Amino acid sequence: xxxxxxxxILLLLLPIAVAIQDLLPAIPPxxxxxxxxxxxxxxxxxxxxxxPALFFALATALVQGLVLLQIQSGQAExxxxxPVVFFLVWAIGLQMTSEATQGMRWEVHALGSAVVTMTLLSxxxxxxxxxxGGFPLxxxxxxxxxxxxxxxxxxxxxxxxxxxxxxxxxxxxxxxxQKPNFSR
Amino acid sequence: MKxxxxxxLVVLAVLAIAVCLLESDTLTRLQSGLLGVISPISRxxxxxxxxxxxxxxxxxxxxxxxxxxxxxxxxxxxxxxxNNGLRDLQQDxxxxxxxxxxxxxxxxxxxxxxxxxHDAGVWWNKIKINRGSADGIAPDMPVITxxxxxxxxxxxxxxxxxxxxxxxxNCKVAAKVEGTKEQGISAGSRxxxxxxxxxxxxxxxxxxxxxxxxxxxxxxxIFPSGIALGTVKSFHARELDGEAIxxxxxxxGMLEEVFIVTGAK
Lengths: 184, 265
Fold this sequence. Notes:
The complex is a heterodimer of chains A (184) and B (265). Chain A has helices at 2-23, 37-47, 50-67, 81-100, 106-132, 139-163, 166-170, and strands at residues 71-72, 75-76, 104-105, 177-178. Chain A is mostly helical and 184 residues long. Chain A has one domain (2-23, 31-165). The longest helix of chain A is centred in the middle third of the chain and has 27 residues, at 106-132. Chain B is 35% helix and 29% strand. Chains A and B meet through helix 1, helix 3, strand 1, strand 2 and helix 4 of A and helix 1, helix 2 and strand 1 of B.
């Protein structure tokens, strides 16, 4: 029951994250965007047990796929297959990392958020190159991948701080949460 | 592994496959539903952002004066946007057919909308606006400002819409260059420079920096003729055609208010 409430809270956070990331201004001078969805995704899949984490990954894939959906000549340009595979693979990877680190750690969440953001943007870029042709790998493109990834790294501990208190309250079966201790 | 977990994984696999096989019509409806879900959050978030942004101004001026100023500013932009199309079409009076359809093409019905935010997608250029199907907005309607073309409506929910900006690679616009017979197709690019590329021009086109480019309004297209699209920055001949780099007419990074062209008056 408690686990279900945590799952629902995390599901509600997905559209909220999408709405907030659209409201946030771009980071000058490269106009890079701040992405909150990968940060919420990492927290969710690390806080939940395996099976709910996989369902959460599927929900994240659906939201991300719909956010990026563009219909061209009656066909979806990217579709949902790539996001579904991407988020399910990362959900399993992050679950294994949580097992390996014997619990949910803020450092792992922060690093995971950055790596997921970086790979997500890279996969999107590659998919567009395949779909539309060309491969304009320039410094500006790299900056547009790296800056949101670094931003995710910096934002992730804030979300971890805000949400880690929910996990013991709502989810007695998940990985133990290790609260941030910056004195170490 | 417990039986329940195995059953859950089977359900997950079936759901994942079903999601991957969704048709574009279903995806469009789901996207519209998602926009409907985030619409109240976006609207309230934008209201909070505006309140915080105007806090200092409110301390210095009366609310009534500000409201009146915003109303007049909005009306002024609307009139300038209308005038923009009218002025350009006057210059095309050497083409009798275009002159005959002058009023049809130049008299727009405009619906004003506030920009709620830029889409956070890194490789796509989209904005969200506070108008939707409840206001008569439909996909593919052109979006303009008093300065020029902004883009087209890409998806719609009841009171929120997404606009695909002209700087997006997928927003293709038939365009003509002022003072010449040159016509081409303009589109954005994946390079995040915010410029437009006008292609399929003649290799021998004599284009100079500063020349204005307007929508061509081809038959069956979605953009009316004569809306300012951009200014030529440079031109170079390619193997088969000529390509001009354009600076967009509308300042797409600073959009606050736009107008949706819902039809002719």
